[in-house]
Design goal:
Blueprint lengths: L3 H17 L5 H12 L10 H5 L4 H5 L7 H14 L11 H16 L8 H21 L7 H15 L8 E2 L14 E2 L34 H7 L4 H10 L17 H5 L22 H31 L2 H4 L3 H4 L14 H7 L3 H15 L3 H4 L15 H22 L3 H17 L9 H9 L8 H16 L5 H7 L19 H5 L15 H5 L22 H11 L23 H17 L1 H4 L3 H12 L4 H21 L14 H13 L2 H5 L5 H11 L4 H6 L2 H14 L5 H14 L3 H4 L2 H15 L4 H25 L1 H6 L2 H14 L4 H17 L2 H5 L1 H18 L5 H15 L10 H16 L3 H11 L11 H16 L13 H18 L5 H24 L13 H22 L3 H4 L1 H19 L1
Antiparallel strand pairs: 1-2
Helix pairs in contact: 1-2, 2-5, 5-7, 6-7, 7-12, 8-12, 9-12, 12-16, 15-16, 16-19, 18-19, 18-20, 19-21, 21-26, 25-26, 26-29, 28-29, 28-30, 29-32, 32-35, 34-35, 35-37, 35-38, 37-38, 37-40, 38-41, 40-41, 40-43, 41-43, 41-44, 43-44, 43-45, 44-46, 45-46, 45-47, 46-48, 47-48, 47-49, 48-49, 48-50, ...
């Protein structure tokens, strides 16, 4: 590193020398300048006008008209070094960035002239590519203009194929967003005097027949490039054939690999070792061959630089803009008689350099990342027979072609590093493709073809293969196609490939599927293992026939990788992971297996439940190990097992009761966990993330099972969680607060006043924490706690209310009021808790002076939240809370000033809120008071009526199309609220109601008729109203109004009750006509 004083002196000297010295010195001066400014850009600010200004030296020397290419290259290199960013230092000004970008772009757009040698031109392109990449990475440059994006993508695509043997394309000066591939003009491919060699080709580029393969040879680009001297033109024609047809068999002769060959460990026909040219067969002399090899190496560097720059470009463009260029970089199925468009997969399949192939796959993987929304439009489940091809079918075709090409690359690849990138790219594709909208079969091909690579000699390939399997079982789970794959026999497709690890078959024999104890397992688990149905038999108490005939292949594989000692035969890459004195498989492999196992349990629990106790044992063994990462994923597996049982036992679960995991088995499971490593893991304070996961796991216990645990185990769970709630680590404290919020809903705990009080104090402590995450979790738990108060009030009556401390209740009220002023994540549950506490209050509390001020503040907080600009979730909860307040008869609803404000706020929301779900909840709140006195004066009552009428007329007015699906529910709730008001109306209310009906009666009439005739819908609160109940509501309103009007003997009868009678008559006639 040069200090700043010397740097200033040297830069001044270089600039002066460039202006005064002869031209023959300029190249060397620029090389020195490039070395000086490297990583010193921020220190060169005062020299930028001389270098990059209007008449800057670097701009002059890098001008396209510059005849000396070496001079131009040196100038571009200096400019690229200036663009390098230094962390923590200011970057180039926007004007200089723009000048550099345009210079680099012009260099990349230029063509090689005849007087420029290949190597110099490659070095010029490399410097420009590095400069663009530095601008995109260091300057956080955001490409916004379509012309700028299109021009850059065009030159990058051109450079991606620079010097690629067997292929020459001419890309337009700019690419534009288009749904179909843009035309790439292909130039005739020069055969480079290799005509005699064409008869000697036998297939793939990847392998040699002659000579021995040296270890690590595939990872060294230079060696492979030098070997590929003479057969690239052959390769172009041969690989072009690989683009046609499908992965599996086709009617015509097909050079592509078959899945059956791959699974059986045989080399596919198209992937037989290719004959390489020896030096004696080459038409070049040794010197010429050396030069050609050097040129190819530099051309490969250009392609790699372009791909690295494209990767940075992907990160600098918004996804919605980027996917406009999908067809330019992602393959599509070729049309009849037309060649396939060149894409990133062309490089992955044809490029002779494994490093370049890996770069292309890395770029494609980044391109696919986050594409789920874009790809979600794809659909080809139904055969389309139209005069045009819909965009959805085009995208589906592209997805299928991606699968086909990646699977071709998979079987043809020999470099372990590139193979890892292929599998990762496949995993990214699988994670984003909408398989439920595509014809089945794609995942089956990927599944069958990846199986041999799980036993690959390279540990990185094995890890990425497991990642791919994890992606398959997690995508849109459960998919019928994946369910069938999981049910395949264990032996299906697992015969070792040529690269399989010798002796790996032992895992099938050594895993304790039949209940035997593996070596080194804890003695405390012996009795448990005897009950584990690893051999496929049904567990005790579970339905007969529930288990598959033999264990799920993937489940068994993952368990073997996690718990079995490693084999002796391992690749060199294993030495980078010295796990547990090499007793077990490498740590990354075990971690990936644990994650796949957790995903399998999460997505396909009915399949995994047959091995419920055995999987619990795996989680136990992992938590007993010394490696915190293994312990962590063991705890995550435990959480997924607990969550799977919880989902099964939900009241609305589609799983039949006899097909669920028996509660007795769940009790056994958690008894062993609490007698095993779980309590120790929860107290493992050095590892906060592990404690957090253990907390989440403990909160996944089934309530019915918890109530059947022994008393000391119940106390252990509660004591651990209450203790962790005082942790200094915010992650642990948040998890403990959430777990307490789960436990407070357990029937066996919520009726215990002491537990409720202890939990309330713990939650209130967390509610004042400085961490926003802790406060958000505590607010959620506070909402659950107050839900419990309401449940206990309804089920236990006065006894529970009297036992609960008044002081605690006041603390709950004040803390919830304070939390309602916090950020939205806290506020949404704080207002829910406020509504519950205000509903819970008794007349003695309302009359108590200590409570009076707190009640007023809490009500004002709720009213303010309803009318605020908070998120819709917060406002929804605030409307719900006010509805709860209205249920408390102890509150002076008809007299208090806050009641007028509450009704006014709800009336405003029901008319004008953009979110229909909030409108529905506000209409529901307005219909809760059960007595006319609660609505206050006649003027206030009629204002509420008018607001509901206006809301009904506006029930289809929305700017957001997504809200329309709630419009029917909104109209039903509004009609129900209007009828509720009519059933409570007084004689003094009728004149204004009659006036409203005269003005708006015809407008709202169709909505009321629709409410009476439409099928019963489940409301937001879960209440189900049928047609008969709605008719009874209308009839009740007519009878109530008729009685009042008979007393009045005025004109109101014609305008109100007769209006409703006319609606009822019309509805009855329409119903009879429909039934006839």
């Amino acid at each position: 590193m040069v200090d700043e004083q010397n740097l200033n002196f040297l830069l001044s000297y270089c600039i002066s020398a460039l202006r005064q010295c002869s031209s023959w010195t300029h190249v060397e001066i620029l090389q020195a300048l490039a070395a000086l400014v490297y990583n010193n850009g921020p220190k060169c600010q005062k020299y930028l006008p001389d270098l990059l200004g209007t008449a800057g030296l670097l701009l002059q020397f890098s001008d396209p008209a510059q005849p000396d290419v070496e001079l131009r290259r040196a100038a571009v290199r200096s400019m690229a070094n200036l663009c390098l960013s230094v962390p923590g230092q200011p970057y180039l000004d926007e004007s200089y960035r723009s000048v550099c970008f345009q210079t680099f772009l012009s260099v990349l757009q230029s063509s090689k002239t005849t007087d420029v040698d290949d190597i110099t031109f490659c070095m010029l392109l490399q410097s420009a590519l590095k400069g663009v990449q530095s601008l995109l990475n260091g300057g956080k440059m955001k490409l916004m203009q379509i012309d700028q994006i299109g021009a850059l993508l065009a030159v990058l695509k051109k450079c991606m194929f620079h010097g690629l043997p067997g292929l020459s394309i001419e890309v337009p000066t700019a690419l534009y967003p288009a749904p179909l591939p843009q035309y790439d003009k292909r130039s005739p491919v020069k055969q480079e005097q290799s005509e005699p060699a064409t008869s000697k080709q036998t297939g793939s580029r990847r392998k040699k027949c002659k000579g021995k393969q040296k270890k690590g040879e595939f990872g060294e680009e230079g060696r492979e490039d030098s070997r590929d001297a003479g057969d690239e033109s052959v390769l172009g024609a041969d690989m072009q054939k690989l683009h046609l047809g499908d992965v599996q068999g086709s009617p015509c002769p097909d050079p592509r690999p078959r899945v059956s060959d791959v699974c059986a460990g045989r080399d596919p026909p198209s992937c037989q070792p290719c004959k390489r040219f020896s030096s004696s067969e080459s038409e070049y002399s040794d010197t010429e061959g050396g030069i050609q090899g050097k040129v190819r190496s530099y051309q490969a560097n250009v392609r790699q630089g372009a791909l690295a720059c494209f990767l940075s470009t992907i990160k600098s463009i918004e996804k919605r803009v980027l996917y406009g260029y999908w067809s330019a970089f992602v393959p599509d199925a070729p049309g009849i008689g037309s060649p396939q468009s060149v894409s990133l997969m062309t490089i992955a399949l044809k490029d002779p350099s494994p490093k370049t192939r890996a770069c292309a796959l890395q770029a494609l993987s980044a391109f696919l990342e986050g594409s789920k929304q874009f790809l979600s439009v794809a659909e080809d489940a139904n055969d389309h027979k139209r005069a045009f091809t819909p965009f959805s079918v085009t995208i589906a075709s592209s997805i299928r072609e991606l699968h086909r090409c990646l699977l071709l690359a998979l079987v043809a690849e020999s470099s372990s590093q590139t193979l890892t990138q292929i599998v990762k790219c496949l995993a990214n594709l699988v994670s984003n493709a909408p398989y439920s909208r595509l014809k089945p079969g794609l995942l089956t091909r990927v599944w069958n073809q990846i199986k041999p690579y799980i036993s690959h000699k390279d540990v990185n390939v094995r890890v990425s293969s497991l990642t791919l399997l994890g992606a398959i079982i997690s995508v849109q789970a459960p998919l019928p196609e994946v369910q069938l794959l999981l049910q395949q026999p264990s032996s299906s497709g697992l015969s070792g490939s040529g690269s399989a690890t010798p002796g790996r078959e032992q895992w099938r024999k050594a895993v304790p599927w039949a209940g035997e104890s593996p070596q080194g397992s804890p003695a405390g688990c012996e009795q448990w293992r005897k009950a584990v149905p690893w051999a496929g038999e049904s567990p005790q108490g579970s339905p007969a026939g529930c288990a598959p005939p033999e264990p799920c292949w993937l489940l068994r594989l993952c368990v073997s990788l996690i718990v079995l000692p490693r084999e002796d035969s391992c690749s060199d890459s294993d030495t980078a992971f010295p796990a547990l004195g090499s007793v077990y498989e490498p740590c990354p492999l075990r971690l990936e297996a644990l994650q796949v196992l957790a995903l399998l349990v999460k997505g396909y629990f009915p399949m995994a439940q047959s091995y419920f106790l055995g999987l619990g044992e795996v989680a136990c063994r992992c938590m007993e190990e010394m490696d915190p990462s293994i312990q962590l994923h063991g705890a995550k597996l435990l959480e997924e097992l607990g969550t799977g049982v919880l989902q099964q036992h939900k009241p609305d679960s589609p799983t039949a009761p006899e097909q669920r995991v028996p509660v007795s088995l769940v009790v056994t499971f958690w008894t062993m966990m609490l007698n095993g490593p779980l309590p120790g893991t929860l107290q493992n304070s050095p590892h906060a993330t592990l404690q957090t996961s253990a907390c989440d796991a403990l909160s996944s216990i089934l309530p019915e099972a918890f109530s059947l645990l022994q008393g000391d185990q119940q106390i252990l769970c509660v004591t651990l969680l209450l203790g962790l709630n005082h942790s200094e680590n915010p992650l642990v404290k948040a998890a403990a607060a959430r777990a307490l919020g789960v436990y407070i809903l357990f029937p066996c705990l919520r009726q215990d006043v002491m537990f409720v009080a202890d939990t309330a104090n713990a939650i209130l402590n967390s509610l004042h924490d400085k961490s926003p995450n802790v406060r958000a979790k505590a607010a959620w738990s506070l909402g659950n706690l107050t839900d419990t108060l309401i449940i206990n009030m309804e089920t236990m009556g006065q006894s529970f209310q009297e036992e609960l401390s008044d002081l605690l209740l006041l603390k709950l009220l004040r803390s919830a009021t304070e939390a309602s002023k916090d950020r939205d994540k806290v506020k949404s549950n704080a207002v829910r808790a406020l509504g519950n506490v205000l509903h819970f209050l008794q007349p003695c509390h309302v009359a108590n002076p200590r409570f009076r001020e707190a009640i007023e503040e809490s009500l004002q907080a709720l009213i303010a939240t309803v009318g605020s600009e908070a998120t819709m979730k917060v406002r929804w909860n605030a409307c719900y809370a006010l509805g709860n307040v209205f249920k408390n008869p102890a509150l002076p609803l008809g007299e208090a000033p806050w009641a007028t404000q509450a009704f006014s706020a709800l009336s405003s929301v029901v008319k004008s809120c953009k979110n229909f779900k909030v409108r529905i909840k506000s209409a529901m709140a307005l219909s809760i008071p059960s007595r006319r006195e609660c609505y206050g004066s006649t003027e206030q009552f009629c204002q509420i009526w008018s607001a509901l009428v206006v809301a009904l007329q506006r029930s289809e007015d929305t700017e957001d199309f997504l809200e329309f699906k709630y419009s029917s529910s909104l109209r039903s709730q509004l009609c129900q609220a209007l009828l509720h008001l009519l059933q409570l109306a007084r004689s003094t209310d009728l004149p204004l109601i009659g006036s409203s009906l005269r003005e708006h009666g015809q407008a709202i009439r169709p909505y009321v008729l629709q409410y009476l005739s439409s099928p019963g819908q489940e409301s937001e609160a879960g209440a189900h109203t049928d047609l008969a109940e709605r008719e009874r509501g209308l009839q009740g309103a007519i009878e109530h109004l008729s009685a009042i009007e008979r007393e009045l003997q005025g004109k109101a009868r014609v305008r109100v009750s007769l209006y409703l009678e006319d609606v009822l008559t019309h509805h009855t006639n329409a119903t009879e006509l429909a039934e006839a």
